[in-house]
Amino acid sequence: MPVISDRFNTTVDGEEQRGLAAVYELLGDGTYSGIDPFDDSAAAVTAFKDGQFDELVCHNVADILRTQALGRVAERYCGKAEFNVKSLTATRDT
Q: What residues are paired with 16 via a beta bridge?
């Protein structure tokens, strides 16, 4: 089970903002929100099933950019000791 820890207050008007897009809107600058054609990731699943791959690619790129931007926020405000970095290098040859 993954370890989840809260580093930022994402509560607005008593309601916690969850999900990548909502947290990005709160903590980021909103630059990448216009790229995403969907209101939520559930719509992306439907788009995949319907073969709407252009929109799906835009959604995925927006998610990558939002994740990167939030990572930069975390780097700026959290100490290095707060990060648990894992290598993605293969552990064995295939």
A: 11
Higher per-residue confidence, 90 vs 2: 90
Cβ count near 34 (within 10 Å): 8
Query: Nearest CA to 22 among 7, 12, 37?
Result: 12
Instruction: Tell me the pTM.
Output: 0.76
Query: 60 is written with which tokens?
Result: 């995925």
Read off the tokens for 55: 């929109």
Q: Cα separation of 31 and 66, whole Å?
A: 9
Q: Report d(CA 28, CA 88) in Å as an integer.
A: 26
Amino acid of residue 78: C
- The C-alpha atoms of residue 20 and residue 25 are separated, in whole angstroms, by 9
> Where are the chain's structural domains?
15-82
Exposure string over 3-17, b if 16+ CB within 10 A, otherwise e: eeeeeeeeeeeeeeb
d(Cα 69, Cα 67) in Å, to the nearest integer? 5
